[in-house]
Amino acid sequence: MKNPIVRFPMVLIGVSIAVGLLAACIGARVGADRKMTTFDFSRDVLLQTYRVDSWQQMRAAFIYYRRHRRLAEQPGDKPGATQIYTNLLLRKQVRFHYPPTALFIPMAIDRLRLDEKTVYDRSIDVFLLVNVAAIGALLLHLLRPQLRGPPSARDAAVALLVSTTAVLTFAPLPIAASLGQIQVWLNALFAVTFYLYATERRALAGVVLGVMTCIKPQCGLFLLWGVLRRDKRLVVAMAAALAVGFLAGTAKFGMENWFDFLKGLQFLSQRGESFFPNQSVNGLANRLLSVAQPQEFNNMFWRENHLPPHDPRVYAVTVASSALLLVLSFLPRRSRTVTATLADFSVMALGVTMASPIAWMHHYGILLPILLFLWLTLACDPAFARCRRARAGVLVCAALTGNSLPIFNLLAPSYWNVLQSYMLFGAIGVFALLLWMRHRPDALAPPEVGPSALERDAAGAVP
What is the rounded distance in angstroms from the CA atom of residue 37 to the CA atom of residue 330? Predict the structure, then answer.
């Protein structure tokens, strides 16, 4: 293939697909769950078979608030009855862990009297398409030196085909869609943000990050990151978007629910999740305890309205690992070059995700644009021509983070269940490569245009 839009990205995508196929074949032979491979979730997307994971929690919280808000207006109602998180999350362990602003979504559907399932399903379709478009645009942007000219209509069409393949086969993305997760929205919005940031549209990137924070509060750490980076355009735009969301949420749901939300976050951070899709340090630690206490620390089976009990050891490991990840994410970069800047942005995004006590597999959908950036930089930039081990590392990390590998669930009853955290290990590898790229002296040099690293490898020019 002479077209660089196909040749370079498809190496990364192809290796990930090949590993997924191999793991699925081996898993089928040894008795692993045959309904949880990457391609099962991809099939769900193609058939538009979506569940209602996030939506049912939001609906439950909205109905609870609406009912008790009406009761609160009547004499004799109990104080604190409208506190969503205390009454649902803390007392009943209903997993509504979104900020109050997220309730505007079911509220709008209710006001417009729309069919919820139809709206949510079509929103998943729309945001998957947004993700495809954003990844396609990012490919064209990152491969401009190899195109040696403005992208043509044919280049754009090829980029969309490649990005469609990537979105359908990068496991966290179809997993989110199959489950019916609002993370589909967030993954798409992050891909848009990454493209905007890469193309120097910092204010627009800040607005999108502000919108994401109104659904996923961890993204709010980008505001502090922007302040430390003295990125005024991003900070002002993000702060404005957050102010609008906060004021609207306060006007509708009251300050008490913001304070109650903080109480809910503290409750979750003290427990986390032991269910195997939780690919965080907290999940790994909780699953180790599941060997001796499989009922309390459920590993293989989802238990509705049940969270693992608080364990001081798990909590200490969670806090220490989260603190380390965030400190590394906030460390300043050594350069203002495009490569170092994008690596720095990627470090922050991935660090915030991994630092969360609960980082489900579908949360790692943000890794697709990051992996493509990493791979295309190492494969195409002559400054990284000799970095063969780094390129191999990216391929390994893409295979681990881009696949659902149920074969490792066979190890759940033993302490080898640490291998169930394969996606976490892949994400740690990506994080380390990004830190290396952010601080590597070669990244300080201006970008060059010349033969790519892969082309030099193929020609035998690299020893």
Answer: 35
Q: Which amino acid is at 153?
A: A
| SS3 of residue 360 by DSSP | strand
Contact (CB, 8 A) for 50 and 362: no
Supply angle C-alpha 131, 133, 135, rounded to 5: 65
Q: Where are the domains of the chain?
A: 4-457
Counting residues of the chain whose pLDDT is more than 90, the rounded percentage is 76
Indicate the DSSP class of residue 357.
S
pLDDT digits (tens, 9 = 90+) for 144-194: 988 878 889 999 999 999 999 999 999 999 999 999 999 999 999 999 999
d(C-alpha 288, C-alpha 265), whole Å: 23
296: nearest Cα among 314, 320, 322: 314
Task: Give dist(CA 223, CA 58) in Å, integer.
Answer: 26
pLDDT tens string 215-253 = 999 999 999 999 999 999 999 999 999 999 999 999 999
Q: Are 269 and 358 in contact (CB under 8 A)?
A: no
* CA 217 – CA 204 distance, rounded (Å): 19
Residues 413-450, buried b or exposed e (16+ Cβ, 10 A)? eeeebbbbbbbbbbbbbbbebbbebbbbeebeeeeeee
Retrieve residue 345's tokens.
Answer: 């942005």
> Can you spell out the DSSP letters for 270-299?
TT---STTB-SHHHHHHHHHHTT-TTTS-S
CB 62 within 8 A of CB 75: no
* Beta-carbon-side half-sphere exposure of residue 126 (alpha carbons within 13 Å): 9
Side-chain-facing half-sphere of 139: CA atoms under 13 Å: 30
Distances (CA, A) of 293 to 67, 286, 290, 334, 415: 38, 10, 5, 47, 12
Tell me how far apart the alpha carbons of residues 214 and 272 are, in angstroms, rounded to a whole number.
21
Task: Check: CB of residue 287 under 8 Å from CB of residue 299.
Answer: yes
One-letter amino acid identity for 452? Answer: S
For residue 379, give the nearest of 82, 5, 118 by alpha carbon: 5
Phi, psi of 362 (to 5 degrees): -70, -15
Residue 258, judged by CB atoms within 10 A of its CB (0-12, 13-18, 19+), counts as middle
